[in-house]
Amino acid sequence: MAVPKRKTSKARRDSRRASNFKLEAPNLSECPQCHELKPSHTVCKKCGYYDGEQVIDMDKKDKKD
For the chain, which terminal residue's Cβ has fewer other Cβ atoms within 10 angstroms, N or C? Predict the structure, then answer.
């Protein structure tokens, strides 16, 4: 079995572990109804449409306030 000759320093170990860590911005798509940017596969927060159907009635939501 292979045995390391020297101790791996914390800097070398941590830089190796951090090399594949990357944050990405969320992919946004345009709403076909109101043309606002929204995350894909979610209901539009502005108009309440998802996949061409109105899922949330935004008029009723505004009246509750």
Answer: N
Give 8-51 pLDDT, tens digit per residue: 999 999 999 998 888 888 899 999 999 999 999 999 999 999 98
Q: Which one-letter DSSP state was computed for residue 34?
A: T
β-sheet bridge partners, residue 49: 54
Residue 49, φ and ψ in degrees, nearest 5? -95, 145
Burial 22-42 (b: 16+ CB within 10 A, else e): eeeeeeeeebeeeeeebeeee
- Contact predicate 47/34, CB 8 Å: yes
Nearest-angstrom CA–CA distance, 10 and 8: 7
